[in-house]
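# step 3/5: fold
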Amino acid sequence: MRDNALINNRRLSPSFNKVVDGWWGLFVVVILLIGVLVTYQQDPYWRIIKFVSDGIGITVLVTVAAFLLVLFFGLIAALGRLSSKQLIRAGATIYVEVARGIPLLVQLLFWYFAFPSVTRSIGQQLNLVALQTYLANPVFMAILGLTFCYAAYMSEIYRSGIQSIPKGQMEAARSSGMSHFQAMRYIILPQALRVVLPPIGNEFISLLKDSSLVSVVAVADMTRRGREFMAANFIPVQTWMMIALLYLVMTLFSARIVAWIERKTQQEVR
């Protein structure tokens, strides 16, 4: 996972669009490769797919749920960092620096193992039975951990996009009678979202790949199901080859959708 330092807002040339469209070919090749493996060697490849099929659903659920929350809380954090109130700006800045300074795996372990222990301790101090008997839900904790980490990165993307809009836009909106909230909602944010769409799409793909880390906190995602299959059948090469291909299909498809949305947005801007 890496920081998004710069945001590219250049219009895509027709030749570049053709290259992007051509990447659908790689997606088809990977699908065909999986089909060939399953057709000519049903055992073990087809068994692997059936075994991890429920893990694919969990992977998609965790990724989509976390990403929707990341979009919302990332925007809140970005607005906090741009706030004129020093206390709000300082709080948002501390959150971003802390979340980006701790590895995602460590954060997931904290939310699953440490947070429930802290909650139960608070329940004992306050004599609240509900908190004393609190048990962490693996999927919920995984979504929470991914959201907490990725919202910090998303806030920087939003902030860069908002700051890329000329200040005259806000001044013109305020002079026309809009409040700061109205100007931000109707004038600044719609323009900023067009600017940050490419890096937002990249964050979704990164989140999809990093979702494999939730397997360490008892979430039965595709990676964990792959480990279980390998442990039961002792065929690591075939198992991880198929898991890698399945992840590649998901990321290639997501990347092509992001590229399509980006091109549609660029056409609307023109």
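# step 4/5: annotate
The chain has one domain: 15-269.
# step 5/5: archive (pending)
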